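Database export, one record per block. Field names are fixed; values are copied verbatim from the stored entry.
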Amino acid sequence: MKSFFGIGGYSVTPEGAYSWQHLLFVAISISLMIGLAIFIALMNKNKSEKEKNRVLIVCAILIDAVEIFKIVLFSIRDNDPTVWTRTLPLFLCSIQLITIPIAAFSKGRLREAALDFVFIFGLLSAVAGTIGAAQNYNAYPVLSFPNVVSAITHCISGFCSLYIVIAKMQSMKKKNIWITYSILLSFMAAAFVANKIIPYNYMFLESDDGTPFVLFANLVNHNKILYPITVVLSLVLYVAVFYLVYYAITGRKNKSIQSKQ
C-alpha cells in the first residue's frame, strides 16, 4: 500500500506509455465506463429529469471527493503545502470538476450549457486522460495512486458524457453555444495567467508534455507563440465541429421520423 500511494517512493519501475499493462488498464477502465453508462442510462431513460439527475449528483460528489483526497494525500505525503498550485482545475479534463456539479445542482440555461459542455468534452477527456496520458505512465507504475485516481476522474467525465446523451439530457441549443465557448475560453485564459504566475503548464499551453498536443508542437516547431495559439484554435474548432456533427445527425433522424409518419 505504501508503494501504491508512493509513500517512500515507488518500488515498481513504470511500465511505460503504451505498454501492454497501460493498454490493458485503460481498456478495462473504458469498458467499465461505457458499460455502466449504457446500463444506467437505459435504466433511467424514461424516468423524470429529477430521477435522471440523481446519477449526475453522485458523479459530481464522487469526482470532486476523489480529487480533493488526491490533493490532501499529496500535500501530506510530499510535505508540500504548495501542491495546490499544481492541482488547480485548469486542465481541459479538470474543468469537469466544476461543470459536472453545475450540471447536477444548477437550473435553467446554466444547467443546459453545463450539460452540453460535459457531453461535448467528457468523452474526449476520458480518452485523452487514459489512452493519451503518456506522461503519467512513463512517470508512475500503472497500478499506482496517480494513475488509478486519474483513470477514475477521467472515466467519470466520460461516463457523464455518455449518460447525458443516452438518457437524452442534452439540449445543444444554438442560443447556448456562446456559453459553451465562454466556459472554455475563460478557463484557458485563467490557465494562461496561472502558467505565467506559478509557473506551470496548465491546459498544456506551455508545452505538449508528452500528450497528443505534440502534433501541434511539431507542426509549429515548438514555437512558444504559435504553439499555444494552435492549442486554443484546435479546441475552438473541436466545439464547432461537434455541434455541426450533432445537428447533422439529429437533423437526419428527425427527417427520417417525419418521413415514416
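Remark 1: The chain has a mean pLDDT of 92.
Remark 2: The chain has ten helices and no strands.
End of record.
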